[in-house]
Design brief:
alpha+beta; Alpha-Beta Plaits; four-stranded antiparallel sheet; 57% helix; globular
């Protein structure tokens, strides 16, 4: 366990995740100061029984405690990728690798090798999966054209978006729009 009164939690990727973790902590009578993406600031250090109970409850909803520095770095990389994708394309002044190393002060090749060895896929593959999930979301909303979606998600053209979408999903974006009811995955399942 980390020496501070913090819990580091793997797979927290959305606002609903924050609420879920808060609910788990309240149900377990664990006093906390703040719940943020991937991290909980506790009011006191937990004993081993409390940690095991929290770990069990988090596991039931797809979360896990992070107990090593390396796992913390992996989660920080994932959160940086999600933040990068949430930044409007017009505001992105850096490429992904620079964005990540600005947030996690390590050599990018080290971060890339670490991520690949732990996750079994590259940072770029994870980024592409997250980007495609964003495209799926926009396609399902059916409010933007494919050209607008391509521009909004940083693709150079509709052709590039369509080719990558088909490579990842096996479907064209247009066909996906027609059958979209249950093809999306939650971000924490990627």
């Amino acid at each position: 366990m980390l020496p501070s009164h913090k819990l580091l939690i793997k797979n927290m990727v959305c606002q609903r995740c924050l609420l879920t973790v808060e609910h788990i902590l309240r149900d377990a009578n664990i006093p906390f100061r703040n719940v943020a993406m991937g991290e909980v600031e506790l009011e006191r250090k937990l004993d081993e029984m409390e940690i095991q109970g929290v770990r069990r409850e988090l596991g039931r909803v797809g979360f896990d405690l992070i107990e090593t520095r390396l796992n913390k770095i992996i989660e920080d990389i994932k959160l940086a990728i999600l933040d990068y994708l949430a930044t409007p394309i017009t505001s992105q002044s850096k490429n992904l690798s620079t964005f990540i190393t600005d947030r996690i002060p390590n050599d990018y090749s080290y971060l890339s090798d670490l991520f690949s060895s732990v996750e079994g896929r590259t940072i770029e593959q994870f980024f592409i999966l997250q980007r495609i999930e964003r495209v799926k979301e926009l396609v399902v909303y059916d409010q933007l054209s494919l050209t607008q979606i391509a521009h909004q998600t940083g693709y150079s053209s509709v052709h590039h978006l369509s080719a990558q979408f088909k490579k990842v999903t096996g479907l064209t974006p247009s066909y996906f729009r027609k059958i979209s009811s249950n093809k999306r995955k939650s971000l924490d399942q990627l």
